[in-house]
Amino acid sequence: MQPTPELHSVASSFLVDGELVDAENWFGGHINDSFLLKFLCPDGEKRFLLQRVNGHVFPEPTKVMENVQRITEFVSVRAPELAFLYLVPQRNLDPWHEDSSGDCWRLYPFMEETTALLKVENEYQARTAAFAFGHFSRLLSNLPDPPLHDVLPGFHDTPARICALMKATEVEGKHLLQEIGDELEFVQSHEDTAGTLMELLKSGQLPTRVVHNDAKISNVLLDPKSGEAVCVVDLDTVGHGTSLFDYGDMLRSMCSSTKEDEQDLGKVVVDSSLCSAIKKGYLEGVGSIFSETEKELMPLSGFIIALELGVRFLTDHLKGNEYFKVTRPGQNLDRARVQFELAKGLKELAES
User: Fold this and answer.
1) In the chain, where do the E strands start and end?
2) For position 173, what pLDDT does the model report?
């Protein structure tokens, strides 16, 4: 499509030796506004990904960009041979563009000859994606101070998420509470276990590391020919926590081919072979930095993160779907039920 005046103005502020000739919406993510740009350069056509950081999800977008800048610059120095994201600077050499509304825009070279998946299809994909996230954690293990900005405070604070659910139940009608009685009972019966990771992290028994915080297959670019992981993307959520947040999120999101909002819970099955592939790949990637305590808690982390996401879906259902978009009534309740089924399956697997 023909670039809009706004896109043309923003794109022209970046240091690209070429003319912007095409722009199209890019639907590779659900949070930020993304556009695939095509420039006609002296050495041929080049493509770039332009993104506007979502100021509703990230109320302080400049802090998001400061984190992204630090991470990309650190990796470019520590592992220059690695395929990784890097920020194209503006013509004034600032690393991102801030418009008159306070929105932050960034430009990445488009990573050609890569693909992304929404769901894991086989064990190799699970293993190579898990390796990529493990290697990501190891790569950033020596990121110097100061700490990264906490752009999503309490994102994986499972006890706080449960408290938010219980508060939501206090203000909703009885008909809604009757509808979710079984789900509430499940959450309350596992409340003590759900706080394990946060308790050990706060006490220092689990080391604080740089973690991705959204570790799923769609945030890993793959080589379409070999299927091998090329690069971890979507760095906006990166912050400090336990690596088990990432490992648990991988187990939760990659252990089953079930639809996120599947209504037939009999179809929600945890694939133990995928779980084994995830474990093997992650341990290969993270290497020797992983402690024995972290290894011991790997199976439990999947249960906790699945429970946590189920709690978030259930809370949003009660509050009228404020955060997670829905396309039909009851969709967030169905999403919660799927996560609780996954949690049950992952708990059974951990105890077997």
Assistant:
1) 19-25, 33-41, 44-52, 97-98, 104-109, 209-211, 220-222, 229-232, 239-241
2) 61
296 band by pLDDT with thresholds 50, 70 and 90: very high
Tell me if 5-109 shares its fold with 123-351.
no
Q: What's at 235, amino acid-wise?
A: L
Q: Which of 61, 63, 87 is nearest to 74 (CA)?
A: 87
Nearest to 53 by CA among 39, 38, 66, 70: 66
CATH architecture of 123-351: Alpha-Beta Complex (3.90)
Residues 24 and 35: their CA atoms lie apart, in Å, by 5
Q: Could you tell me how far CA 30 lies from the centroid of its own chain?
A: 11
CATH architecture assigned to 5-109? 2-Layer Sandwich (3.30)
How buried is 212 (Cβ within 10 angstroms: 0-12 exposed, 13-18 middle, 19+ buried)?
A: buried
Which of 238, 274, 260 is CA-nearest to residue 332?
A: 260
Instruction: Name the pLDDT band for 171 (thresholds 50, 70, 90).
Output: confident
Residue 194's Cβ-side half-sphere holds a number of Cα atoms within 13 Å equal to 24
Least confident of 95-104, 291-300, 320-329: 320-329
Element (H, E) at 259: none
User: How many CB atoms within 10 Å of residue 135?
Assistant: 20
Question: What are 109's strand-pairing partners?
Answer: 48
Using a 10 angstrom Cβ sphere, with 0-12 exposed, 13-18 middle and 19 or more buried, the burial of residue 104 is buried
Largest Cα–Cα separation, the chain: 67
What does the pLDDT read at residue 66? 98
The residues spanned by each domain of the chain are 5-109, 123-351
Q: Which two tokens stand for residue 292?
A: 């024995």
Name the DSSP class of 27: -
Residue 4: alpha-carbon gap to chain centroid: 30
**CA-based Rg of the chain, rounded to a whole angstrom?**
21
